[in-house]
Design brief:
With 261 residues, the chain is of the alpha/beta class. The protein has helices spanning 17-23, 40-56, 71-76, 103-117, 127-137, 141-154, 159-174, 179-188, 193-205, 209-222, 225-242, 247-260, and strands at 9-11, 30-35, 61-66, 84-89, 92-98. Belongs to the thioredoxin family.
Length: 261
């Protein structure tokens, strides 16, 4: 791998781990992606990480480690399940998460890692939000929902808490779904509203939010009455996850407005 402006994506083995991860992390944050060929969720997460690494232009490096080929490294990091992602800064792992997470959240996590790599640990702006985000990252959706709702009770327009709550809803909706099966079902049944909504959820989780928005805007054009309102509300909920500053949301909102009127 690699790109203009320095190295961005590398494959690491047990032989190169010391230099490519530990030594490199003394000067540049390294985000380690543990994956395997047989791991379906890895195929959703890894491409998003790679795209963000290239976008980062060398501010951090993505080190991909195949757990089957490098079991010793996986043992050293106590990797239980994959995908598992670690941030290594200054020769030490400083944070980690497992499973597939929405791109908006991934960006926030990476920003925090890069900040930490700058030698100045950013003070958490809102410890309540950190606690809620941690619960969401670890998959404790009930605790995350309680924490986000508590923030919203105290600060009703908190955009980060609203986005978090929307992410909890998304995680619940896709729990147990088969990503490829759901997308195929949506293709086979273009007018099955629930199939389209689930496919859009999976696209958002896979870092393909623009595709998800287009899918639902097209569905708004084809539906009417209660179905149409259901699709509209679902789409607005997906917008909440990305936040108001996301350029894809801005253009999708315009498309939605033209579809509605």
């Amino acid at each position: 791998g690699g790109a203009v402006g320095g190295v961005t994506v590398i494959d690491v083995t047990e032989a190169t781990f010391q230099s490519e991860v530990l030594e490199r992390s003394l000067s540049t944050p390294v985000i380690v992606d543990f994956w395997a060929e047989w791991c379906e969720p890895c195929k959703q997460l890894s491409p998003v990480l790679e795209r963000l690494a290239v976008e980062g232009g060398g501010a951090w490096v993505l080190a991909k480690i195949d757990v089957d080929a490098n079991p010793r490294i996986a043992q050293m990091f106590r990797v239980q399940g994959i995908p598992m992602v670690y941030a290594v800064v200054g020769g030490q792992p400083i944070d980690a998460f497992s499973g597939v997470v929405p791109e908006a959240q991934l960006r926030q996590w990476i920003q925090a890692v890069v900040k930490a790599g700058g030698g100045t640990m950013a003070e958490p702006e809102d410890p309540r939000l950190d606690e809620a985000d941690d619960a969401l990252m670890s998959g404790d959706l009930d605790a995350a929902e309680r924490a986000y709702r508590k923030i919203l009770a105290e600060s009703p327009a908190d955009a980060a808490a609203e986005a978090g709550l929307a992410q909890v809803g998304l995680a619940r909706r896709v729990a147990g779904a088969d990503p490829q099966g759901a997308i195929a079902a949506a293709q086979a049944n273009p007018d099955d509203v629930d199939a389209q909504l689930l496919a859009a959820d999976i696209e958002v989780l896979s870092g393909m939010a623009e595709q998800a928005y287009k899918r639902l805007v097209d569905l708004v054009r084809r539906t009417s009455g209660d179905d149409r309102e259901k699709v509209r509300q679902h789409l607005v909920g997906l917008f909440t996850i990305a936040g108001p500053d996301d350029p894809a949301v801005a253009s999708a909102r315009r498309a939605l407005a033209s579809a509605l009127f």
